[in-house]
Amino acid sequence: MNLKTRSFPYPQFESASIYVHFVVALNSLIIIPLAAYILPDTQLSPSLIGYLISGKSIFALATSYLVRQKRAHDLALMKFFLLLLSVLTFLFTRATSFEIMFVYQSLMGCCCGAISVMNFNDVVSRSKVDDRKKKIGSLLSCYPLSLAIGVSPLIFIAGNYGWRVSLQLLAMLTLLGLVSVFFRQVPASVEFSEPPATTPMIQPVSWFDFVLCCSTIFMCVFSTFLFSVQLPTFLLTQLHIPSYLLSISYVIGGLGCFITVRRYTKKQNTFLPIRNILLASVAVSVLAVLVFCSQQVYVAAASFILFVLISASRTLVVKTDILHQASEGLRTLMVGTQGGVQYVAMALAGSSSSLILASGNDGLNYSLLAEIGVATSLFVPILCVVLRCRYNKKPSDG
């Protein structure tokens, strides 16, 4: 039976969706590198930054679940969340205590969770089978792209004019996203008949498959953020790396990841290439430890660049493959929950990193953080192997 679906008739509609996703990704990630500027200005402990990430992620999970059936063309709802996100981002710059910052970050998480899920659902539902992997990759690539062309300029501004000015600029960028939604017209749907779909690699939904896919995505994100929540602060406060060098690191790492994922989604690659994922997991562990152990600024910066590139690429490849290759029933479940899984992983990683750092008797316990981070990172390829074994069709590994 031929299936009916909808595609983007106009490029500008898709471009608006990508911009909205870019703004949400930027808002989700920016608090991590800006923490090194926020903490000394507000006299907060470095161990508290993880709780800001956790609060934002937990509330993002809650709203992503509530709006999981809604789509981006619910324009009134999209306008509300984008406007609220812009206002909250500005109000955060006026906060002076950790409690108020936590409240604002949590409410911003509500907005980010709702917008990202609605936008993602709409893009996937309007994609042809042949274009779905590319469209999924495009949205997921907004995260490394935001690191490259979003986070880096904001870090530079924070280093020269203060973190408050940096976030006020982000509030303005969010308003531009509101404008793109406000003025765009949702194009009429175009119906077409898809050719008979090839046998999906993940067969009809079972709860084991669902839990396994969620666990794999969770561990990718968790193992990455366990390190990445603390690495920028470590570089700026412990190694005293210049802010421009951290910005350059995000530019190179983010663009490298963006190019890698774009190239990956244009080819029919092996599903979850285990060898590559294993090598990436080992590299992520080694590079993070090298940052923590190195006393040379440029060695640490180079290691951080490669960490950003490889860890983000690993996560996006895993998520793209799962969402692209899943059967229709499993994909429907995963599209509505993958955002929540990511936010839970970010929340737990943020809280865990703060608790681990605070566990040291003398100072911050970076050595224990490195040990636990390595263990979680190396668990990712194990989950990928188990997921591959659930597939009826097992292509040769690439």
UniProtKB/TrEMBL annotation:
SUPFAM superfamilies, sorted: MFS general substrate transporter (SSF103473)
Alphabetized UniProt keyword annotations: Membrane, Transmembrane, Transmembrane helix
UniProt xrefs under Gene3D superfamilies: MFS general substrate transporter like domains (1.20.1250.20)
Pfam families: MFS_1
Coiled coil feature spans: none
Organism domain of life: Bacteria
Listed transmembrane segments: 16-36, 48-67, 76-96, 102-124, 136-159, 165-186, 207-229, 241-261, 273-292, 298-318, 339-360, 366-387
Protein name: MFS transporter
Organism encoding this protein: Vibrio marisflavi CECT 7928
